Amino acid sequence: MTEERDENRVDLYKDLIFRAIFGDNSVKNVLKYLLNAVLEQAELPLIAELELGNTFKLPTFYGGKSSIMDIHAIDETGRHFDIEMQVQPEKYFGERLFYYGAGMYGSGLEQGKGYSKLPKIVCVAFINFPLSDQKPDVWFDKWQMCSTLGTGLGTDKMTNIFIRLPRVANNELSPPDTYRGQLAYWVKILSSYSNLTDEEKLELIKSTKGFDELEQRIKYYFGTEEGKKVFFAQRELDSWAEDIRESSYEEEHKARCEAERQRDEERRRREEEQRLYRERQKKLFVSIFNGRFGADAVLPENWAEDRSSDELDALTIKISDCDNLQEALAALEK
């Protein structure tokens, strides 16, 4: 299945569209249902009430790096959520997610309050690529800060949850039973909304909490001028990302070719060094041989063939100790 490129396509797995649809207080219940589906599988407490927060975090020191979250939400217990949609592979995406979470964690305590009042932070990341090259089959993962020595110590104050979405355009499917309950429906919605048939949408309205509201939001929002601008911006971003990928592939190809050229050049250099060294060994041997047994002494044909450099060195030493030509020739035959 190839991905259509038209202005009516709503790809919820693309960050600008995801943010525009889910990042509005008018549909906070839809976001709550989506998050609860994730929290249920992660075995974390569910959300009763939800409000959207500021997505921009200033650095806490001069020259520090600010952070812009896709969606920031706060539940009735004061628990903070950073919800990210990441389509393009990013080497240190897990570290970036911890940085965002640490920003919320560090700014969540008012002066004069004890550290027990620090808020819980949950970063939820929907990704469209393998989380790890070493473990490409991981489709759902939860990270927390805990002891690696089995002491049971640590904290559940910061949690990162990763949900990998299948790339429907590449006919990719997640393994059976990867997602449970409502999350299985939401993964299908996020990864393939534009490919859903009317019958599938009717089934999702029956089975998925919040899908009916999501449908209404999509139909309304992308009929507005703001929605049309988001569509245009997402297309521009996709085009830019494609150019970057092509440029990256080209640079990677050039780098591979250059590395191969350098390896070939180094191999040829070593081979030439070995050839010259072997020629010097042979000349040294002949010089010693003729010096010991006279210029008329004749070496057997191909006497140096199939002998390594170490063997030639050993043979040179050996004939130096030979008392006569017959003994030297016998040494050459061994």
Task: Please describe what this structure looks like.
This protein has 334 residues and is of the alpha/beta class. The chain is built from 9 helices and 8 strands. A 6-stranded mixed sheet has the order 1-4-5-6-8-7, sandwiched between helices. A hairpin with a 4-residue loop joins strand 4 and strand 5. Helix 7 (225-293) packs parallel to helix 8 (309-320). Mean pLDDT is 82; it is low at 1-5 and 58-64.
Distinctive features:
334 residues, alpha/beta, 2 domains, two-stranded antiparallel sheet, 9 helices, 8 strands, 13% strand, elongated
Structural topology:
Blueprint: H1 15-22, H2 28-42, E1 50-52, E2 56-57, E3 67-68, E4 71-75, E5 80-86, H3 93-106, E6 121-127, E7 140-146, E8 154-164, H4 182-192, H5 198-207, H6 211-221, H7 225-293, H8 309-320, H9 325-333
Parallel strand pairs: 5-6, 6-8
Antiparallel strand pairs: 1-4, 2-3, 4-5, 7-8
Helix pairs in contact: 1-7, 2-4, 7-8
The total domain count is 2
β-strand amount:
5-15%
Termini separation (Å)? 70 Å
Which regions have little confidence, pLDDT < 50, spanning 5+ residues?
Answer: 1-5, 58-64
Radius of gyration: 34 Å
Q: What would a concise description of this structure say?
A:
The chain is 48% helix and 13% strand. The chain has helices spanning 15-22, 28-42, 93-106, 182-192, 198-207, 211-221, 225-293, 309-320, 325-333; strands at 50-52, 56-57, 67-68, 71-75, 80-86, 121-127, 140-146, 154-164.
